[in-house]
Design brief:
Shape: globular
CATH architecture of the largest domain: 3-Layer(aba) Sandwich
Strand order of the largest sheet: 2-1-5-4-3-8-9
Largest sheet: 7 strands, mixed
Distance between the termini: 60 Å
Strand content: 15-25%
Helix content: 25-40%
Length: 194
């Protein structure tokens, strides 16, 4: 009889774990790659030196990309693409906040970020912060990054290359994959804005 009670208890415990996981995580792998369904809570510093929190972005559409200023290809390419999307969106782009969150806060100070983002559309802001704050923001967005050392002691960063889109109420809208054709990226952005 006691064994039967233990089995029932284990079955309910397993069911509770699976139920919690089903509520917490997306239903399939495609959704898992899409990202969270809310704007993660973060406190970071923008490229003008102002502290920015999640609440600052409520009420506007949000487009977020994780990268770093010494990135050789993915980041400048993506930010150039974003600049083209914003240009194509015209006045609709003014309804968006676009942010590059640096995954290399050790090198990417607000001044460095300000100089870097000035090479792209002026609506793109840079965000950085303490390493723990950046790590928390990335984890909440389900973005990943890691330092990769090169010969001679220098390093680069591997990181998630997708662009996250959110509705003004914080609901996740979509993700645009690296090098996704503009024919698909801009309509995704427009659908988010509608």
């Amino acid at each position: 009889m006691r064994l039967r009670h233990i089995q029932i208890f284990l079955w309910f415990a397993a069911a509770a774990v699976f139920a919690f996981a089903a509520l917490r995580w997306p239903a399939n792998d495609d959704d898992a790659a899409a990202g969270p369904d809310f704007i993660p809570t973060f406190t970071l510093t923008d490229s003008e030196g102002r502290v920015r929190m999640t609440a600052d972005f409520r009420g506007k559409f949000l487009l977020v990309f994780f990268g770093f200023t010494s990135c050789p290809d993915v980041c400048p390419t993506t930010l150039s693409d974003i600049s083209l999307w914003l240009e194509e969106l015209g006045a609709d782009a003014d309804r968006m906040i676009v942010a590059l969150i640096s995954v290399d806060p050790e090198r990417d100070t607000p001044d460095v970020l300000a100089d870097y983002v000035s090479n792209f559309d002026p609506r793109i802001m840079g965000l950085t912060g303490f390493a723990d704050d950046v790590a928390q923001a990335a984890a909440d967005f389900r973005a990943t990054y890691r330092r990769v050392y090169k010969d001679g002691g220098d390093y680069t960063m591997d990181h998630t290359a997708g662009v996250f889109l959110f509705h003004p109420d914080g609901r996740f809208a979509s993700i645009i994959d690296f090098h996704e054709d503009r024919r698909f990226a801009v309509p995704k952005t427009l659908r988010t804005l509608s």
